[in-house]
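Build the 3D complex.
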Amino acid sequence: MTLELPVLAIPRFDLDPPDVTAAVSVSALLADRTRAAILRMLRDGPHCVCELAAALGERENNVSNHLARLRDAGLVRATRHEVNARFLYYERDETAMAHARAAIDEVLR
Amino acid sequence: MTLELPVLAIPRFDLDPPDVTAAVSVSALLADRTRAAILRMLRDGPHCVCELAAALGERENNVSNHLARLRDAGLVRATRHEVNARFLYYERDETAMAHARAAIDEVLR
DNA sequence: TTAATATCTCAGCTGTTGCTGATATACTCA
DNA sequence: TGAGTATATCAGCAACAGCTGAGATATTAA
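Done.
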């Protein structure tokens, strides 16, 4: 398969810059091993901070910080456990996740 | 819709950390407005550095730097124009783009 | 060959981001 | 109520990434 170039080399200087702010915000969140792993782990169901921290070998306050970033972005939310309310279980907001995916797809598709 | 939590609050400390290195690398590339916009613009066909720089309001050496990052990652490649070989036209490697998308989908899906 | 254009490379500065350590809050159980 | 557990918050430090400015290479046209 061969490259399709304009017949004459006449650069166009009237092109509009695409709006990629949504994709960039989401990517910045995913561009960290801890946050990406958290989102991947929450695919399989809710987890509390101590479970995530243990699995990732990270300190809990560190994981908590990253969860705060994801919470601020609306990608996850927390619920206290009914039986033992000292555990905060985090789960993904699947609607927000779908939007995030769509924003990145707009660039990569 | 209600949150599905374990009946008893018994944290699991035997969970495996997911491998998210591919998704993190791609996201780091997308987490920059210039690079994301370049990839989006190249969706519509090849462009030379000066076109991309003009559309984005960025300096050409800056855009060239970002293109080098995308090239090193295998996401784009460059070809000199047949008629006027001083223009380097960049195009996406759609196979690499598909892999990038799959890596991110593994986290967001 | 010389001048101009298009692109690349890189050192140095700077703003951003993640981690650490300390402290605060919330909940449970004795 | 007090001790212990789970989580949150935040200031300060260190590492990293992007931009600038300068200089190099490649191609074309005069």
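The mean pLDDT of chain B is 95.
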